[in-house]
């Protein structure tokens, strides 16, 4: 930690900062400058709270050097964490799984058909919302428990593992009973009560970046999950707020190599929410793979024109097939592979 | 709703849009333009979901004209809603209450002293966190239930009503038992499960704007509370995310007249979080009153140097006294008054 | 300057950083931490360019403590700079001038009438564009030289000094011949060639904040003007880009006390561009005064319905009268006064 | 254009809007809604200025349906524009040129060595600044005319065409005499005087997106160039402002498919400025190719530790070689190729 003094600081003010740092149990190292003096705090173990120093007379600014997160960092764990949501569906290694499916589970026919199309297209996990966070209280909020049952049915029919969102305590328990991976949505990224609860459920978690979250904010929220003992955490870039209304969100693909440098956790990308535009999902899905994404999360609907939510950004089934094919070519170019859905194996085995 | 067709749309595509609109039970009105055709949807009652139209061939864009919120709008209710959190402490009228107090309740001495200082400075309600949303799982998370008891004690000592935050279901019930007004924090603005629950508790609510929330997003979240039957809702501007690190958040004071035009609900401003800088709280608190704010929410600590959280943005007690004095002068200049804390004001003089 | 090493830095890497700092002629002070080592650079006079250190092996980050601007800073000059654009129209002191007028000069009748209305309303300087930066090459671009002649005529008729924008070298010379203050628009805030040129023209300058400019960026651009020997510089907050389409720009009033702390230059506020909405100009103009603005810049048109540009955000003449009246009340509440236009005020009363 | 009336509009107000639209020479089509009435303007040819309608009583909002740009749009020209800056170096076709080189031209040795390294790495054009826009007036501003001479020398030595920036009128003429492509920097994207001047110089132009520019803003600035008769325009995504300090800018790769849908002009990507971090340039350069970029613009320096500017984001020569190799693999995966520098040809020719 570095304490920057104001230009016109007095010696007494510097001495007071040094004294407080010593009281806190650390060593203080003053550094006079031509413009102003700084005081370095030596020995910070990441737990120093500088707010009391900030408010001392003569202090201009407190700059943090230590990172506020611990267990999620590469410094805590050097090698990649592998998150396995089902046999053969592993995030963080050379293989890249693609998760696809509709925004919402609507009915049995729709979700089973979608699951078959997802599998046929070459994706290896099924997404679909049973509990939907909607900005309007009057919009369709999902089928709830019935939706979870339909997801389980779709899994039985196709063998695809299930990724689905939980919104609250009651729902989290229900989701944990059925899903292979519990999704925490962007709007709940800083719902710390929910993070703590889900951190204790012992299931893999997919944590989406909030719309106003920095990379550090995202890692801090993941830290809540790890602090509860759950290391099976997948991060997800899904676009942040920006000033340009051309797209629904601003898809920040640099987040992928940033997270991979700072953390051992895998990170996937969601080009459907990241752009909000169906015809941008394929190029940006390709770009995510090229940037090094450990997975994709994509919306596909058997009949987007009839979707109850997010129809405008859902791929048609044949578009998903094309995305998987192009993702394979890109993955191959960088020495990785797209995960093959279980049971379909390599056609070569047939 | 207006459906804008692509430049090279065909007659068949326009006909398909017209047909779907009719199927939905509305009237369609095509408007050819020199560049492209649009189709107006006539009779929209605010419940039309355009996503299925967006995905039709030849459609470039769907533009919403009706507003997605209802009960929070000025069109639903013309006159201002008055929110009363205690006798004489009313938001939305000519009088402007000031809520002040520490970021966190720390101990009995601190909160009782703070409450006395708040009252002596001329503010009329006490804030203080018992449950604290912290970005790090390792930071002080608040005293919890014990903190609520201390707030109740501070109220008995000073007569000031209590505003404090709830983070989850269990906490919401505890807070509702003690507080005069339940705060929903910025990070939970789109935690719809919490909004629905708190909407049913029958207590006044102070809903803070999320860091990435537009004004419409804020009103939509308030709509969740009203949809549960609770109209005692105070909105709060507390700064949003921006690219300039000079301040902790970007304090968006235009939100005040914007909300007052669109909605009948009162809106208060929080210059402490809005700027994150102690020496900016007084000028920006004055500015908020001048912009028409229906209240202020301000952090003050008996000893900011020793605060367990947010010390750097907390006012000293004498600064709060100055803020209230200057707020009075500004309020007077625009024909309003600052609420006098109960038991102190002119009543005592009468 | 503080050089933060990576977590796994080696002693040789730290030694290399220390060596390079010494080569640069400064003293190096290593500070080991529990997580990582930092190296302080002692004696920075504000001219250190850290980019070569950033690229050394083992370096995680370079943090600047010294400010990159000099002559604009409060540390360079303690007392406020007063900028006088005409006798009695001074920015930076207790008096607050209001500059008002149409977006564009359209014709003799319009600008002379506007000037009279501005003066009658109690504002003390006239704005009006002769050269207009327009996002479309096909939009009205201003009357050019003819517009400047009409502004001079309006000044003769009313005595009001003129503030008008220059866009390029040729125009800057023409504007300097006529105007009392040369405006540099938001889009040209980082047009350094124009800044240098206008810095040498010896006229007061009003420099608007760019749409993506931080406060430091704004001060750095002003530094270009001061580096050319011109200290008569007024800064202007006019709104920045944000994610909320509710307003044309996000009006950042905290910029006012921020600039006033960091710099000795006066800062005015433009609520017309800052909000883009006529009915928000009065409350936000009041708020700017309450925040401590050293002036206002406001669009008013004799007949906004017929304006050639920006009609939707221009005040009606009677609204300007009301704004000046309310600004007076607010100024009075904080111990300041609104400048009275020359020839109208108390002189007449004497 | 769609005029949305306020909720409580009167019949007379609607009639007035209809009347004004007719006066403007267009047809008006009122559409009553359950909440409010809208009025469509039929026959808009893209030149309607709605600001006078916005200010009519009872009008809530004016929504534009027609696009404000013309000659840059796909609707004006269906097929891609090919921009040729030298024989075999063509932007907008199947081949993808890579432009690389140092931030600034520093001296003969540096730029000639850099050019050779650029060519050896497989890039096909040389970048290097002779005129540098610097945020500080005290920073190195480039070698000016001498720098252009050194660029010409480097071209003679290597055969690589030159891309370099012009900042003002005088410099633009000098640059046009030497360069193969004139760059307009992000800070000058809305310097309309410079756009008009450069539009008339008859040289290919590379126009960088401004830090606060939407896609539509970028296209409008390109329209200035085309309106002067120059269609040889390359657009460039180089990152925009965001709230996350993790990167220098937020690299918006979705801009690539967005621009390619809306316009016939080619678009390249600059991952060096887009991220500001050397170790992110390779993954994000790959991602740009995968997203469909028509070229890359990359900073490389023979000795980044000794660079006079932007050392921290410049690639080492061997990293450029790796980027070109990986870009080739990605291009191949999507059916495109990386342009081979002239004279090196296909190894097959040797």
3D architecture notes:
- 4 copies of one chain form a homotetramer.
- Chain A has 350 residues and is α/β, with parallel strands linked by helices.
- Chain A has 2 domains: 62 residues, Phospho-2-dehydro-3-deoxyheptonate aldolase, domain 1 (Alpha-Beta Plaits); 267 residues, TIM Barrel, CATH 3.20.20.
- In chain A, 34% of the residues lie in helices and 17% in strands.
- The first copy, chain A, is built from 11 helices and 16 strands.
- Chain A has an 8-stranded parallel beta sheet with strand order 14-13-12-11-10-9-8-15. In chain A, strands 2-3-1-4 form a 4-stranded antiparallel beta sheet. A two-stranded antiparallel sheet of chain A has the order 5-6.
- In chain A, helix 3 crosses helix 4, helix 3 packs parallel to helix 11 and helix 6 crosses helix 7.
- Chains A and B meet through helix 2, helix 6 and helix 7 of A and helix 2, helix 6 and helix 7 of B.
Counting copies of identical and different chains, the oligomeric state is homotetramer
Gyration radius of chain A, in Å? 23 Å
Could you tell me the strand content of chain A as a percent range?
A: 15-25%
> Can you list the strand order of the major beta sheet of chain A?
14-13-12-11-10-9-8-15
Tell me the CATH topology of the largest domain in chain A: TIM Barrel
**Structural class given helices, strands, pairing of chain A?**
alpha/beta
Number of strands of chain A: 16
Could you state the order of secondary-structure elements of chain A as H and E?
Answer: EHEEHEEEEEHEHEHEHEHEHEHHEHE
């Amino acid at each position: 930690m570095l304490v920057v003094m104001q230009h016109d600081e007095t010696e007494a003010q510097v001495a007071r900062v040094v004294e407080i740092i010593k009281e806190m149990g650390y060593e203080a190292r003053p550094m006079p400058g031509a413009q102003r003096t700084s005081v370095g705090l030596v020995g910070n173990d990441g737990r120093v709270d500088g707010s009391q120093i900030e408010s001392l007379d003569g202090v201009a600014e407190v700059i943090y050097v230590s990172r506020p997160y611990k267990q999620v960092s590469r410094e805590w764990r050097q090698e990649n964490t592998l998150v396995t949501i089902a046999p053969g569906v592993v995030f963080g290694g050379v293989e890249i799984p693609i998760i696809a499916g509709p925004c919402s589970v609507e009915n049995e026919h729709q979700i089973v058909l979608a699951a078959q199309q997802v599998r046929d297209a070459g994706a290896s996990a099924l997404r679909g919302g049973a509990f939907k966070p909607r900005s309007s209280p009057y919009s369709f909020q999902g089928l709830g428990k019935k939706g979870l049952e339909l997801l389980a049915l779709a899994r039985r029919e196709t063998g695809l593992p299930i990724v689905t969102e939980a919104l609250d305590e009651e729902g989290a328990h229900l989701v944990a009973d059925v899903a292979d991976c519990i999704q925490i949505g962007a709007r709940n990224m800083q719902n710390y009560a929910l993070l703590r609860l889900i951190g204790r459920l012992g299931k893999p978690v997919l944590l989406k970046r909030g719309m106003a979250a920095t990379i550090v904010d995202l890692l801090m929220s993941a830290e809540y999950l790890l602090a509860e003992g759950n290391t099976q955490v997948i991060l997800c870039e899904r676009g942040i707020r920006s000033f340009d209304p051309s797209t629904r969100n601003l898809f920040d693909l640099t987040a992928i190599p940033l997270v991979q440098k700072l953390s051992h956790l895998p990170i996937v990308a969601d080009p459907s929410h990241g752009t909000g535009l169906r015809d941008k999902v394929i190029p940006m899905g390709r770009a995510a793979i090229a940037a090094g994404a450990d997975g994709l999360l994509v919306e596909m609907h058997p009949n987007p024109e009839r979707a109850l939510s997010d129809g405008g950004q859902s791929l048609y089934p044949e578009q998903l097939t094309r995305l998987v094919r192009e993702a394979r070519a890109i993955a191959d170019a960088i020495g990785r592979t797209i995960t093959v859905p279980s049971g379909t194996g390599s056609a070569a085995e047939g």
